[in-house]
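queue> holo job accepted (NAP)
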Amino acid sequence: MAIKIAVAGAKGRMGGQVVKSILEDDNMELITGFDPSGVGEEIAPGIKISSPDEMDKVLKEVKPDVFVDFTNATAAVENVKVASRNKVKLVVGTTGFSEEQLEEMENAIKNHVPAIISPNFSIGVNIFWKLIAEAARHLQAYQYHVEIIEMHHSHKKDAPSGTAVKAAEIISNRLTKGEKKFVYGRHGITGERTDEEIGIHAVRAGDIVGDHTVLYAGIGERLEITHRAHSREAFAQGVIKAIEWIKGKDEARIYSMDEMMRELEHGG
Ligand code: NAP
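queue> job finished
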């Protein structure tokens, strides 16, 4: 039987791509979309966009198996609460959450529904996170400086990207058990760079889908590990895998892409 899916942010860049990928997949059925833009518009034959204000009522009527969220941090926290209350499994790709917002979502999910949350659903980026940790593990003995550079389109609302923040956390945990100091961009008389810094730089320009580079620089050389997304299909294909995977989970907690990929890679 096809998996019944609701998409929040259905008119947005990512939500729109996810809608397209769901419609192309015979094992999935889009049953509703939510977005304050374009309420009442058809996104698929017979499927109209509903207002987020109607979410609770609509979810009770159409009973999706999985709720996908690509909105913004404030909206996503509320959407997660409504979906969890209605026992709809979750795939959350929205980024830019504060610590408090992450805690609010965790409280809404724990003991209520299985959920997978990731700041990046591309398979390549999830492997990039493993590679940068491995490089950091090797380089920690040699005092290499680490800088992270991310580039995105001009419409992106949060900076630095969730992917860059996660990269910084991974490297910080690997190098110093969390004691590295994050420096966001540099400006003015900054003084000499210290070994404890991880520089994080956000570029916003044109229609760049998403580039991330971690640069490890020593004396006379540098190593760069880069991921470039060519199109939003990279994220949407990961979302499709996550929808199928979370549908099969029963334990009500937050799962990671890493857990999903380990299972898929080992045939579990
Ligand atoms: P976008 O084009 O601005 O789309 C977001 C959409 O959500 C907009 O149409 C917005 O409507 C709508 N929205 C706002 N509040 C809502 C609510 N309460 N319920 C339902 N829809 C609501 O942004 P985007 O580029 O698609 O990115 C969306 C999020 O996904 C961002 O946080 C981005 O960083 C993240 N992202 C994650 C991944 C990943 O793999 N995890 C990949 C790419 C992007 P209005 O414009 O009218 O407010």
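queue> Residues 8-9, 11-15, 34-37, 52, 70-72, 75, 79, 93-96, 118-121, 158, 235 surround NAP (CB under 6 Å).
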